[in-house]
Amino acid sequence: MIKFKIDGIELEVPKGTTVLEAARSVGIKIPSLCYLKDVNKSSSCRVCVVEVGPRLIASCTLAAENGMDIKTNTAKVREARRTVVELLLSNHKRECTTCVRSENCELQALAKDLNIRDIRFEGEKTTCPIDDSSTSVVRDQEKCVLCGRCISTCGNVQSVHAIGFANRGFSTVVAPAYHKPLSDTVCINCGQCIMACPVGALHEKENIKDVWNAIADPDKYVVVQTAPAVRVALGEEFGMPVGSRVTGKMVSALRKLGFDKVFDTDFAADLTIMEEGTELLKRLESGENLPLMTSCCPGWVKFVEHFYPDMLDNLSTCKSPHQMEGALIKSYFAKKMDIDPAKITVVSIMPCVAKKFENQREELSSENLQDVDIVLTTRELAQMIKEAGIDFANLSDEEFDNPLGESTGAAVIFGATGGVAEAALRTVFEITAGKELEAIDYEVVRGTEGIKEATIELPNGKSINAAIAHGLANARKLLDMVKSGEKKIDFIEVMACPGGCVTGGGQPIIDAKTREVMDVKIERAKAIYDEDKSLPIRKSHKNPYIKQIYEEFLGEPNGHLSHELLHTHYQK
Ligand code: HC0
Ligand code: SF4
Ligand code: SF4
Q: Which of 123, 124, 189, 220 could form a disulfide with 136 if both were Cys (CB 3.0 to 4.6 A apart)?
């Protein structure tokens, strides 16, 4: 153990602890900007300087040593921090009142805390065109503070390396290789860089106006659907604690916004289990294209396309649930209601920015109509609710519309890593057993371990080796083990975002300080599993509307119409 002093307080910490971590552990507040727990330690911004003897040193990379006497609050420290932030602001596009991150900006908060009222330095400014080439992520280098948090996320957490530092000195910017537009790179659109960015330099491609226009158009029938993970995060945008469940209020808000029908992506998640479960049993039988890999995360699908094209046939042919839901809205529902499908606009509310890429893929349309027309993130929905002046916190609970709004607990858990696998196991196990099963909580596939494995013995004497990865660096490790023959796996679930969709790139942004004291993916996942427990039906094949849609319309899982509407194929 290391013994040392910070501001006169005697501390004992394990070797390797940084001064910043030690100080924060006893409630001493040291501001920082580039530091992001478990992701980025670069000491590039110098905001976290402390006094060590005669020197000022960045505390985020300074390991505590025996006998140190650290001072965090001297005139010299305060002045140094103020100078650093003023210099950052002197080369920052300061359009705070109209910035997408206004009031949720770590630079703005720093300037406020440090009482910066004017900027002593005015000089050259970085000029760089906005890169809005991507369907999902917009880059504005004139707001970038060069903290490197996005680069570390893309490289270390996702193992994608789509962006890095380019140029030198004052000309340094964050950019893809050869300054290519982001759309021309291996970027898989996960938006985890947005979640890491402390300022407004990275944000989602906004589609709010498109939705207002559709709602205002009398010729359009506008249907909305909501992803599993949105209901456990939307409340945070209205000051509610992380992990608040706001399903009923969300439905109520969507009706007030003017949508004609409010459906639930969870219905199609149940349907995915029927389709993908059947596909798994068939592949286990034939031994072809194993392991079966889930295909509901568009970030993951694109990752396979870029980095493991030889494994494309292993992906499930199922479209992702919100695409299935869109296809059914424009076929089954349109027919039931006698509405021309071309007049229907399907809007998906997703915790995800990759879904803004997915809905535009040619592989995901039926009869020349896009399954889903517009994708909004959880953040964009919150923005619309605020714009409409809806008092979200005081809304009463409302129910989804039917027939495409009824779902089970198995569908809700799709939002957390391991959820798709657990939902599939609940159904596959019971179908193979041919009888009702009580023990349906597969704890072994839950939790935040990067790679999880489970062998499930089926009642018919066969077994399934399942593996689950979240965060693409983990997925890469897993696939490499499968390819080398080190692991024999039958079923793989991957979600690109660490934690799964609960912490997707479209969710409310959690600042670095909060990320230090709380694991947001755990809190939101808890809410997801609580929602599952609260529902009367918790297995996809028990959803009465799923039974009905097969009887009335689809026929059987993996049948002809299912293949036409609900499945696709990704090609090299
Ligand atoms: Fe997900 Fe989904 S669970 S990808 O993570 O499968 O975005 O929440 O909507 O489509 O259902 C995201 C979340 C979904 C889909 C579902 C799946
Ligand atoms: Fe990297 Fe994901 Fe950001 Fe693309 S969206 S640059 S893959 S972190
Ligand atoms: Fe989108 Fe979920 Fe995949 Fe993240 S894990 S890219 S939020 S689908």
A: 189
